[in-house]
From TrEMBL:
Residues 1-21 form the signal peptide. Coiled coil: none annotated. It is found in: Cell envelope. This is D-galactose/methyl-galactoside binding periplasmic protein MglB. The gene is mglB. PROSITE patterns: PROKAR_LIPOPROTEIN (PS51257). GO terms for molecular function: carbohydrate binding; metal ion binding.
Length: 353
């Protein structure tokens, strides 16, 4: 297990895709032409599953900042299309990438990416969506940057329990001592979605608070889908709902949009909502009293670590050289989660400076 000294300052020369709000986006394999080392900088080929994901947009910004003057970052928007992403990997390899940084559309596609990288002896840094351990173990130049998925669920569950215990008299609408909740789940099968869903509720129960699930459905990490789900749940369950739990802040924001339409957060009509990520938009909602808390998923450090490992790999160095990170037994850098409420809002704000 190697230890990080101080981080290299890494930032970027990027040619990235220009996103259109309507969902049409062009992808880019920019920058270096066919040379693996343009202007003396190593070429790092990178993909993000979709640029317009709330959280990943901040990871992307951190990657671009960290690559400046350190790498020619050829960054692509895979537009939530796994076939497109595989084509992008082929193009990046053909354009001379010396390492790959891949945020998979579908974690099950990791083996295909590894097979392509292995054929060219290229290191691969997967980030944010973790491949199966067996796949990672099959290639000695595969690494991962992300989090411990269960940790976010545990912390969110502790947050829910603390907030409920402090406000039970006002929030327990039917006085039965149980939390009647609805839950907006991320992408089915995604490790974070599954772990956050399980561990948030298990943690609340473990603390000794009874729960009752009124509804749970996927919002696919998407605010608009979450608004649609919340609209339907409010129509069906109305005042029976006592808590809204979301696997990420994007869906929490979508739920809040629905709740506002129904008259919540006005007068004394309130609904506790929690998310995960601590994106700036969610921090604004916490400050405005429309979210009770979230869990910091550190986009800045995830983007920074991804680029640091990828640059070291592209330069033929140990991936941890000159960094402060450690690898665990799964060849993974784990960036810790942190609870964020109104009381420590600056923790979230400082992560996005």
């Amino acid at each position: 297990m190697a230890k990080k000294k101080k981080g290299l300052l890494l930032s970027l020369t990027v040619a990235s895709s220009i996103m259109l709000a309507a969902g049409c986006s062009s992808d880019s394999t920019g920058g270096s032409g066919d040379s693996g080392k343009a202007d003396g900088l190593p070429a790092v080929g990178a993909t993000i599953y979709k640029f317009d994901d709330n959280f990943m947009s901040y990871v992307r910004r951190a990657m671009e900042d960290s690559a400046k003057d350190q790498a020619n970052l050829m960054l692509n928007d895979s537009q939530n299309d796994q076939a497109k992403q595989i084509e992008q990997v082929d193009t990046l390899i053909a354009k001379g990438a010396k390492s790959l940084a891949i945020n998979l559309v579908d974690p099950k596609a990791a083996q295909t990416v590894i097979d392509k990288a292995k054929a060219k002896d290229l290191p691969v840094i997967f980030f944010n969506k973790e491949p199966d351990a067996a796949v990672m173990n099959g290639y000695d130049k595969a690494y991962y940057v992300g989090t411990t998925s269960s940790e976010s669920g545990v912390i969110q569950g502790e947050l829910i329990a603390k907030q409920w215990e402090a406000n039970e008299a006002a929030w327990d609408k039917n006085g039965d001592g149980k939390i009647q909740y609805v839950l907006l789940k991320g992408e089915p099968g995604h490790p974070d979605a599954e772990a956050r869903t399980k561990y948030a509720i298990d943690t609340v129960k473990g603390i000794g608070i009874e729960t009752e699930e009124l509804a749970m459905d996927t919002g696919m990490w998407d605010a608009t889908k979450a608004t649609e789900k919340m609209d339907a749940w409010l129509a069906k369950y109305s005042d029976q709902i006592e808590f809204v739990i979301a696997n990420n802040d994007g869906m929490a924001l979508g739920a809040i949009a629905s709740l506002e339409k129904a008259g919540y957060f006005s007068g004394d009509k309130f609904m506790p909502v929690v998310g995960v990520d601590a994106i700036p938009e969610a921090l604004d909602m916490i400050e405005n009293g429309k979210m009770v808390g979230t869990v910091l998923n550190d986009a800045q450090n995830q983007g920074k670590a991804t680029v640091q490992l990828a640059v070291n790999a592209a330069n033929g160095k140990d991936v941890l050289d000159g960094t402060e990170w450690e690898l665990d037994e799964a060849k993974a850098v784990r960036v810790p989660y942190v609870e964020v409420t109104k009381d420590n809002i600056d923790v979230g704000k400082n992560a996005y400076k």
